[in-house]
């Protein structure tokens, strides 16, 4: 998938937020510094109904939200160093509970996290342009792929550029 600008990022986040399978999914966001992981997460959180200022969890590691009874956990493992922190902070319990989990820099907590349902890789191009690769890693993740069909019968703005479990292009 190609995003020409932030508006395309926002449209993708809004479309993803409409998918029922997202309600109990784990989404990993991958990319270099400045690739747009936090921007995409903010647009997704806003599309899910989070109001007010959305803080980056870079220093706190976790920002938690609740919208209409739905728990949403936004992690940023960029500064994560010690696996014991994962246990001490109760993150294992957060991942075991119902709700949406969004993780930036999940590779920093490799071996501690469950398998993500959906992997989103953001690759910066020129200016605000991004190449975006969606990879389903579970059956739930397949329901979240851009080409999984419209969530409510309309046309999906998510478009093409996704892979099914096992890295098979769709």
How many strands, which pairing sense, and closed or not: the largest β-sheet? 9 strands, mixed
**How many beta strands in the DSSP annotation?**
9
CATH topology: Rossmann fold
Note the overall shape: globular
Structure commentary:
This protein has 170 residues and is an alpha/beta fold. It has one domain: Rossmann fold (3-Layer(aba) Sandwich), CATH 3.40.50.300. 24% of the residues lie in helices and 26% in strands. The chain has helices at residues 6-17, 37-47, 83-88, 91-96, 139-144; strands at 2-3, 26-30, 62-67, 70-76, 100-104, 118-124, 130-136, 162-164, 168-169. Strands 1, 2, 3, 4, 5, 6, 7, 8 and 9 form a nine-stranded mixed beta sheet that branches. β3 and β4 form a beta hairpin. α1 (6-17) crosses α2. Mean pLDDT is 85; it is low at 150-161.
Give the SSE map.
Blueprint: E1 2-3, H1 6-17, E2 26-30, H2 37-47, E3 62-67, E4 70-76, H3 83-88, H4 91-96, E5 100-104, E6 118-124, E7 130-136, H5 139-144, E8 162-164, E9 168-169
Parallel strand pairs: 2-5, 2-6, 4-5, 7-8
Antiparallel strand pairs: 1-7, 3-4, 6-7, 8-9
Helix pairs in contact: 1-2
Task: Identify the notable features of this structure and list them briefly.
about 25% helix; alpha/beta; 9 strands; Rossmann fold; 5 helices; about 170 residues
Care to give the gist of this entry?
Helices cover 24% and strands 26% of the residues. With 170 residues, the protein is α/β, with parallel strands linked by helices.
């Amino acid at each position: 998938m190609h995003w020409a600008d932030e508006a395309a990022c926002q449209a993708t986040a809004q479309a993803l937020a409409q998918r029922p399978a997202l309600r109990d999914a784990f989404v990993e966001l991958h990319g270099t510094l400045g690739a747009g992981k936090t921007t995409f997460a903010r647009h997704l959180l806003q599309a899910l109904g989070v109001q007010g200022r959305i803080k980056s969890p870079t220093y706190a590691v976790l920002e938690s939200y609740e919208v209409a009874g739905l728990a949403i956990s936004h992690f940023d493992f960029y500064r994560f160093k010690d696996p014991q922190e994962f246990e001490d902070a109760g993150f294992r319990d957060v991942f075991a509970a119902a709700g949406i989990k969004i993780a930036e820099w999940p590779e920093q907590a490799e071996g501690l996290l469950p398998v993500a349902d959906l992997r989103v890789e953001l690759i910066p191009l020129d200016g605000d342009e991004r190449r975006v690769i969606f990879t389903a890693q579970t059956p739930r993740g397949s329901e979240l792929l851009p080409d999984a069909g419209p969530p409510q019968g309309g046309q999906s703005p998510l478009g093409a550029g996704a892979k099914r479990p096992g890295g098979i292009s769709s």
